[in-house]
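For the sake of transparency, this paper describes our internal protein records without simplification. Because each token names a local backbone shape, the row as a whole describes the fold. One such record is reproduced below, unchanged from the form in which we store it.
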Amino acid sequence: MSEILLLHTSDSTREFGGMPPLGLYWIASFLEARGYPVDVIDMQVSHVGLAEILQSSKPRVVGLSGTTHTRFQLFELAQKIKQYDPAISIIFGGPHATFTADDTLTHVPSIDVVVRGEGEFTSLALVDRILRGLKPHGSIRGISYRQDGRIVHTPDAARITDLDALPFPKRPEADMKRYDLKMDFLDVKGSSIITSRGCPIGCSFCSASIMFGKTVSYRSAVSVVDEIEMLAKDFGFEGIKIFDSTFTLRKSHVESICRELLRRRLHVTWECEVRVNTVTKDLLKLMRQSGCYYVSFGVESGSDSVLKEMHKNITTDQAAVVLRWTRELGMKSRVFFTFGHIGETLHDAELTFRFMETHRGFIDTVASSVGIRIYPGTAVEMHARAIGSLTKSFSWSLPFNDSRARTLGSDPAVPILTQQQLGWDELKALERRLVWFWMKDLKSSLRELKSQWELHHGRQWWGILKGMISVGRH
């Protein structure tokens, strides 16, 4: 039983299965280190119902965390918690909450306070007041709340510059056994860490630079590798996914972590996201030597003008060079391509298809999608409102479900950017072309499979195998 309960709801749109909510776990460990016992429930792996959770924990404060994709589930949770006990104070935090604080407090009466930005010190000050029977106060930086019928936004909290001062994120042993995160291309169980906060780039579709500010705070190599060693020895993880906004922004940060891993002779494979204008071949080689086998990076577009418009600050030539380096070093690569950016035309989209075709042999995994999702706080959101792609009456907290998004394989709860030159018809046409692009790649793979099969098993057995596949489909 604990007076503080932190809940994270499940997100079916996640690319990775069962990824621990490190932000919420970090707040939990920080509060406990300050003497406040905390119950943390990650509802994506816990099968206990809300009523049972509340009866067991008997909280006075409930903190909710989630994403734009899960906002309606979170609002429903908040309502049910208030129905169970109206005296429970409900706090809402995370990137979505940060950029929709006024909207949320206007339309979701069951949420009492929104924590904006980094949550550790703000949550500590807020919980301390609530548990002492006091209401939220303007002296607490980084919160939004209702007072006398109006919404109050206190000044933003100061950035946390010394991340080493924070304890490692809490990792409940029962939950750690339930997570099914696997390392790509490897049949080993992995876990995730964060080594820095912030991003100075400001890509139009991303809120990271606004959420944490354009200055980046870093953990020391010793702290990072201590956590990796703990995950390996205490929980048996053989792989690590580094989930920084961009791991390679500071060369010295990457080098120090790689050298610390090598010094301790930790045999842990790892992966990360890089920026093509922040790595050299020598840096990638050092990463490879220390266990990095797989890197991801967003090319996003094959059009340099579109890359400039989205403030990506990279070029297609830089991307091509890094792709060659990763292949030469024996590293796996995953590249993101997206269609529908601000100002993008069908000609720009054609350039992206050409880039994908030209460099397909250097890419191990392609993550591609049509339709730019609009997230609160981003430049895309501001542009969408300015051109009417988001109507004046649109609210992040009111019901929204656009079934047209399903035709693009996207979540109907999150709006898609549509523009005069790239409306729904054009986006759907690009989606069809993208499907055929991968079908062509699949056919090429099947031809290679056929050739290899006939080489080793004989031509007649290929016909038998095709017949078995056909029967299986029906």
Remarks:
- The chain has 17 helices and 15 strands.
- Residues 4-153 form a domain with the Rossmann fold fold (CATH 3.40.50.2300).
